[in-house]
Amino acid sequence: MYGAQEAREARNSNRLLAIRLETNKSCNLRCRYCYAQSGEGSAKIADINSLKQIVSEAKELGIKSVVVIGGGEPTLHPNFRDLVAHIDSLGLIPVVFSNTVLITEELAEFLYEHNASVMGKLDSLKPEIQDYLAGKEGASEEIRKGLENLLKAGFSKPAVPGELRLGVSFVSNKMNLREIEEIWHFCRQNNIFPNMEILTPTGRANDELQDKLLTADEIKEYKLKLLEIDRKYYGYDWLPYTPITASGCLQHLYSLYINIEGNVRPCAPTKFDAHPALRVDGEYPYNINKKSLREIYYSDLFTYVRNIDKVLEGRCKNCEHMEECIGCRGYAYSIGVNNGAHPLEALRMECQQCFK
Q1: Does pLDDT of 235 surpass 80?
Q2: Secondary structure letter of residue 263 according to DSSP
Q3: According to DSSP H, which parts of 122-236 are helical?
């Protein structure tokens, strides 16, 4: 994540700060909230030379980091280490999203030596809940072992206080709501960034976790409690209205998401490529196999996206916290298109999660 000032300066100077890159759809888990609906039956693997070319094009647009988000589990890609080493060799920061199941002591050391940051997974400290959400029996034990290997490699010892290299994603829902405070303490005490997301009605969650979505009141209650904890015990203070707890999400201003087919989106749940209204002659035109990343970045559609803060509607319009927060555009988009709105209309709707 990049701070508000850096994000807006990048947008205003037409500079891309990051890309999020899918490498493969295969996954050794079957998470019930997966936006990409990945699993063991998915065999799509991106060509390593194509991935390197995308990174090179993105570097010309000014990026500082590459988020290797897999789409599935990126450590399963046969050239995963080659990609991480390539990103590092260009002076960019590799940021790896992994369920940590395959992160051995040796792989953890490799990632540490190549200046990577790692975002793991920790949806629950209770094995039965973690296994259910991950869609695999025994997943909890495997996830925790990989996390232990990362801690052992030094990822919980930042060179500069506050500049964390390790995080865990935690998708809050009705099943793990009572554990949130315990997981928050665990993260803070181990110098782990708590990437607490809210269950979004997209992908597999639409079918399997609709009854696990949190209400606005439940979200408000736990965010305010975590803010109290941070102020009392850890010296952190933050705006409680932002979509990611303790951190704003301004991806739409400075980042692009490239999926396994080469389709470019603003972020993972903002699935422009899946909507018929944005197709030309039946095909989505914003694909790196059809246009350069530069052409896509400067297109009318993506220029609109990175200026979305100027056209927000409802409570988000003219909000006093606009500099720090534009709400969760992915969540607004998902809710909007699910209710029949045009993609661009859905993208500018007010944030459904804000309790301000």
Answers
A1: yes
A2: B
A3: 127-134, 139-153, 180-189, 205-208, 216-229
